[in-house]
Specification:
With 370 residues, this protein is mainly α. The chain has 16 helices and no strands. Helix 2 crosses helix 4, helix 3 packs across helix 4 and helix 11 runs antiparallel to helix 16. One of its GO terms (molecular function) is magnesium ion binding.
């Protein structure tokens, strides 16, 4: 996976340093190790795009053709429905619940606050005809917003999905796909369409963020969310500082190699995230192939190689960039040791498996097939 970058590194004082001046000054010392293919699977959030892609250009996406004006019109229509339905106690609560479950509530916060304030007053003075749905919905929404509502009977009905994924503790954007509203009303289809459009727009924005962070460019990073800026700038700065120190001491600029190791590591984490999200365990071969990268051994050993400065040459750098056997074998040992020890002790819910677990699954599948 190639890394393209045209940004020259700058020292703390602001002085630039050129590309490598001694690419052939020492004899290669890594010839005895045969390179093995990189162990990262090219999966990312969109399943079509890795963390680094080339050539790195900010591409236009065709995820959605909805313009900002059309989206604003959809918002205006839903706000009209919300103000209208908010006059009815149960319909107003039902619409707020649907909006929150579809993860678009931040567009309607003012209207929601107004309706819930009115519902809070009604809950003190108005007694419904023991409609369990209305009582439960009003209780949850008002408690969630911070209003005091008496719990009355301290009894809970055990619902499997609600206990596994409590609504107030779950990310609405990840739970929205499980929400279905079949009520015969005028706003349900409009709200569903708005949520789908919102999802496509957010997905498009995230894809552009992946492209921006892949450039390893401070200017492009300014378009990222604040949380991503902090992580990117910290990693970029420390990588540049290490590269500059290596250049001063050994005359070689290793920035591309160091960035590639971090890219491989992040893409390996994305593969594990895909397994975790799908709830599917990979085969033992797939797990180990990705696991030797996610172990982080490659990042450590590549940094050590350049910091020691022994035998740095163009040929050796190309070899070490391709995950040679000395690195992959060490990473395999560490991954298996970690899975046999700490993975058994952690026994955490929702983990992405261990080699032992994947191997047992593979054996079971082979026995059933035979």
């Amino acid at each position: 996976m190639a890394m393209y970058c045209s940004v020259s590194l700058t020292a703390a004082s602001g002085s630039r340093f050129p590309r490598n001046r001694n690419s052939e000054r020492e004899k290669p010392i890594l010839k005895q190790f045969k390179p093995t293919p990189a162990s990262t699977q090219n999966w990312s959030i969109s399943q079509k795009q890795t963390l680094v892609s080339g050539p790195l250009k900010r591409r236009r996406t065709t995820t959605t053709d909805v313009s900002d004006f059309e989206f604003a019109e959809k918002l205006k229509k839903i706000k009209h429905f919300l103000r209208k339905e908010g006059e009815d106690p149960i319909q107003g609560l039902a619409m707020i619940d649907a909006i929150q479950r579809l993860s678009v509530d931040y567009h309607f916060q003012e209207e929601i606050d107004s309706i819930l304030a009115r519902q809070s007053m009604l809950s003190r003075t108005f007694h419904s005809d023991n409609n369990l749905y209305e009582i439960a919905l009003r209780f949850r929404l008002l408690r969630q917003q911070g209003y005091h509502v008496s719990a009355d009977y301290k009894q809970a009905r055990l619902v499997r999905n609600s206990l596994d994924h409590p609504h107030h503790k779950s990310l609405a954007s990840f739970m929205a796909k499980n929400f279905h509203n079949d009520e015969p009303n005028g706003w349900s289809s409009e709200l569903q369409e708005l949520a789908e459009t919102e999802f496509k727009m957010v997905k498009s924005r995230h894809q552009l963020e992946v492209v921006d962070v892949s450039k390893w460019d401070i200017a492009a990073a300014e378009r990222l969310p604040d949380s991503m800026k902090i992580c990117f700038k910290a990693l970029n700065n420390i990588t540049n500082e290490i590269s500059y120190e290596i250049y001063k001491k050994h005359g070689w600029n290793p920035v591309d190699s160091l960035r590639k190791t971090w890219t491989d590591l992040c893409n390996a984490f994305l593969v594990e995230a895909k397994w975790f999200a799908s709830g599917k365990l990979p085969s033992s071969e797939e797990y180990l192939k990705n696991g030797i990268v996610s172990s982080g051994v490659n990042v450590v050993l590549v940094h050590i190689f350049f910091l020691l400065g022994q035998g740095i040459s163009k040929e050796n750098v190309e070899l070490i960039n391709n995950f040679p056997a000395i690195i992959s074998s060490t990473a395999t040992i560490l991954r298996l040791w970690d899975d046999l020890g700490s993975a058994k002790d952690e026994n955490q819910d929702g983990h992405d498996g261990s080699y032992v677990e994947c191997y047992r699954k593979s054996l079971l599948y082979e026995n059933v097939s035979s």
